[in-house]
Design brief:
The protein is an alpha+beta fold and 604 residues long. The protein is built from 20 helices and 28 strands. β3, α3 and β4 form a beta-alpha-beta unit. The longest helix is centred in the middle third of the chain and has 31 residues.
């Protein structure tokens, strides 16, 4: 199993660990310290060695920050985790705050006193993030102070070693472009930006650029590392040599100079002493990297990681791989759905059992490298926690006459998948069917959207919410995120969200996942991955329009649809989608699953 269900969260450890940290801060002459969820790469997944926020507070979400002062401490999370944080954290010690409504900078400006010193680890805070925090401190007459040794590490005596996951070569057949070609293209972008070098801090950018994959963190094939990409000359990759196999070492050595992680800051200082202009992405690069350049006399230029967009626009080989991965995954998921309907009728079934069986179906394809994230296997009220993670303590038996939500995905060498379905168990109350149909209307509105070149995700996000808004409802997460090619299941820069201001381009992959969550009651989400398609002319139209084609192929539970709430066009879309599922997935499954699939995809 790639997913563990052991409960490692213990809110009771918070008071003692917070007290130990305060003692260390006192020794260092600091009045407080910032503990972000991030590691030095700002990634979604962090290795256990860098899980400082979880160790200190118990919070296991993918975004957040704690602030520990001498007399008060707070933990900041966004709308996805407002329920989860209160279950995992001792709120007598760490007061929960909404990350958006009360940002840490605002809280600090109100709580800090003149003359106080607030410590931070400059490798764990981005350039822009550190700037905002410094401004907040200054407004209170306090000072933001960088530390060389993280005080959490100093009191965390059981800290695990840094990961040494093996690095592999990602075949050009899957990548669609050889690494030397990518390096030349991206070096030209650095030169165009009038910089001497760009510092790559995101491991997925490094994996894409050099056509390698790693195994340092859960669920995403990342090689934790840094790289320097010069405008001319050979790149440098800063990686623990113990991660490299003979083949990956030979591959990487043909493309770059291989150096150890401890060499990064000295290398940046050397560029600074040479008077170089070094480009850093201020939203991703640690403040320590900028300081290493500028304090040595170099010039820091801020600019977006040029690889982020290049990686987001999939080439023909990557698109073909995504289609193949989704067909394979769709067949496994159809087998799972057929099994679920039979198993839930046969007797007690719990959340862990469902997640285990789904992973087994994917593994039986013989192509599964990993799951793309911990499956959200959620029954009844647990589904109202949109990023719920089942463990042995929370594991629920699926109740009769309810909704069950399963959000999951697979990592295959040719593509990354992510699908959510909400399923009927027995006779579902009419109100829950109404909520499901409202979410479905939003899903269809995105799936059928046509939009001009230059349109961003923020401009179409409302389409997923209109039906819910008319009913006085909404959801507190984005409608869609980008997806990588055997890389991160959550990939930028594109997204469909109120904050998604990057234009959607042909070849990008985004999720389409509106939802609705009633606290303590039920949760609903319907998710497909969509490929942004090239602009085509609409008959009678004046401008070519982009659109979406679903990559995900799996039935949407017809038993939950109130047909009278759908328009003629919406009914036609669902019938056409189901016809495609039947045509493409039907030939890939056994006869028993095929018979189930035929019923599940029948026209409304």
């Amino acid at each position: 199993m790639f997913q563990s269900f052991d409960n490692v969260i213990d809110p009771s450890v918070g008071p003692a660990r917070c007290a130990a940290l305060r003692q260390e801060l006192l020794r260092l002459g600091l009045d407080g310290f910032l503990v972000p969820r991030a590691d030095a790469h700002q990634g979604e997944y962090v290795p256990p060695s860098d899980a400082r926020l979880e160790w200190l507070t118990g919070f296991a979400g993918s975004a957040g920050m704690a602030v520990v002062l001498a007399e008060k401490a707070a933990i900041f999370v966004d709308g996805r985790y407002t329920i989860q944080v209160r279950e995992q954290v001792n709120t007598d010690v760490f007061q929960p705050q909404h990350l958006i409504e009360t940002p840490p900078s605002d809280w600090l400006a109100a709580e800090l006193k003149a003359g106080q010193k607030l410590g931070y680890d400059p490798m764990l805070h981005t350039i822009n993030g550190a700037r905002r925090l410094a401004e907040a401190c200054a407004s209170a007459g306090a000072e933001l102070v960088a530390v060389e040794v993280n005080p959490v590490d100093a009191v965390r005596h059981d800290r695990p070693a840094a990961p040494l996951g093996p690095v592999s070569v990602h075949s050009d057949d899957f990548a669609g472009e050889a690494a030397p070609s990518k390096i030349a293209r991206m070096a030209a972008a650095v030169a165009k930006a009038k910089a001497d070098a760009f510092v790559l801090t995101q491991p997925d950018s490094i994996a894409w650029l050099f056509n390698i994959r790693g195994s340092d963190v859960s669920h995403t094939p990342l090689p934790l590392s840094f790289a320097l990409l010069p405008a001319s000359g050979m790149p440098q990759v800063f990686i623990d040599d113990r991660k490299l196999t003979n083949s990956s070492r030979d591959h990487l050595a043909s493309l770059a100079e291989i150096r150890g992680p401890a060499d990064l800051l000295p290398a940046l200082a050397a560029l600074g002493r040479d008077g170089a202009t070094v480009m850093l992405d201020p939203d991703w690069a640690g403040a320590a990297l900028a300081a290493a350049v500028s304090e040595a006399g170099g010039t820091v230029r801020h600019g977006a990681d040029p690889i982020t967009r290049a990686k987001a626009v999939k080439n023909a080989a990557e698109i073909a791989g995504a289609r193949a991965a989704h067909l394979r995954d769709g067949a496994a998921f159809a087998r799972f759905l057929a099994w679920f309907d039979a198993a839930v009728d046969a007797g007690p079934l719990d959340e862990i059992g469902v997640a285990e069986r789904l992973e087994a179906f994917r593994a039986e394809t013989g192509k599964l490298k990993e799951i793309s994230f911990d499956s959200i296997s959620a029954a009844g009220p647990n589904a109202a926690i949109c990023h719920y993670r089942v463990d042995r303590r929370s594991n629920l038996t699926i109740p009769a006459d309810s909704l069950f939500l399963i959000d999951s995905g697979g990592q295959y060498e040719d593509g990354t998948t992510d699908i959510t379905r909400t399923l009927a168990v027995g006779t579902v109350p009419e109100e829950q069917k109404r909520h499901f149909t409202l979410v479905l209307k939003g899903h269809i509105a995105i799936a059928t959207a046509r939009f001009p070149v230059g349109t961003s995700g923020a401009q179409i996000d409302a389409l997923a919410r209109i039906a819910l808004w008319k009913a006085g409802l909404d959801f507190d997460h984005g409608t869609g995120h980008g997806v990588g090619s055997y890389l991160s299941v959550h990939e930028g820069p594109q997204r469909i969200a109120k904050t998604g201001h990057v234009a959607l381009e042909p070849g990008m992959i985004v999720s389409n996942e509106p939802g609705y969550y009633r606290d303590g009651g039920h949760g609903i989400r319907i998710e497909n991955l969509e490929l942004v398609t090239p602009a085509t002319q609409i008959e009678g139209g004046e401008r070519p329009m982009l659109g979406f084609t679903p990559l995900t192929l799996a039935p949407i539970d017809r038993r939950l649809v109130l047909v009278e709430m759908l328009s003629t066009e919406e009914r036609a879309w669902l019938d056409a989608y189901h016809a495609r599922v039947q045509a493409e997935i039907g030939p890939l499954v056994d006869a028993e699953t095929g018979a189930w699939l035929e019923r599940a995809t029948a026209p409304l």
